[in-house]
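Work package 3, deliverable 3.1, input record:
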Amino acid sequence: NAGVTQTPKFRVLKTGQSMTLLCAQDMNHEYMYWYRQDPGMGLRLIHYSVGEGTTAKGEVPDGYNVSRLKKQNFLLGLESAAPSQTSVYFCASSAQTNTEAFFGQGTRLTVV
Amino acid sequence: GQQLNQSPQSMFIQEGEDVSMNCTSSSIFNTWLWYKQDPGEGPVLLIALYKAGELTSNGRLTAQFGITRKDSFLNISASIPSDVGIYFCAGRWNSGNTPLVFGKGTRLSVIA
């Protein structure tokens, strides 16, 4: 029972590089989310999706893009990485009628 | 956006002591969730609350949905070393497509 799987688990980028974080869920959930976690800041919502083909901005969307081409996948892209994007990124998913969100293991990203 | 105030930010307690933490919101919430995050892991759901006044237990954990719908608390009884971690409250202030909002977390340390 995989649940929510994030790839990769760790990554180091140079400023200006781009990358994509992949989130996959096997629970047939409609909702998917990307959060970032920084010390003392808790979990802040970057973008979310309420279904295949839809995306919406969260609290801190700047510098990130997302795509939900398939229901089970939610991609988070950084077009030009900045040191301020050094963080731990969590993906989560939830069913449409059930508000409980299930989280992945996280991706630790360092931008130097 | 909606904000959750979670307190305390951190706690140091002796093994065997009881613990209490709470969350308050500026708006009425219709869902409260409590998560625990172990080091290097994603948050894991502990308790979900859906009705004002609801009191729910999960082993040594007890959480309540405040009757004003603007607060919730989590109690841990007879703490043990594995209770160490960060506890997050999360809530949804509206039904439908509104994503969860998270508090900034309470970091719990248990001294044996």
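The radius of gyration of chain A is 13 Å.
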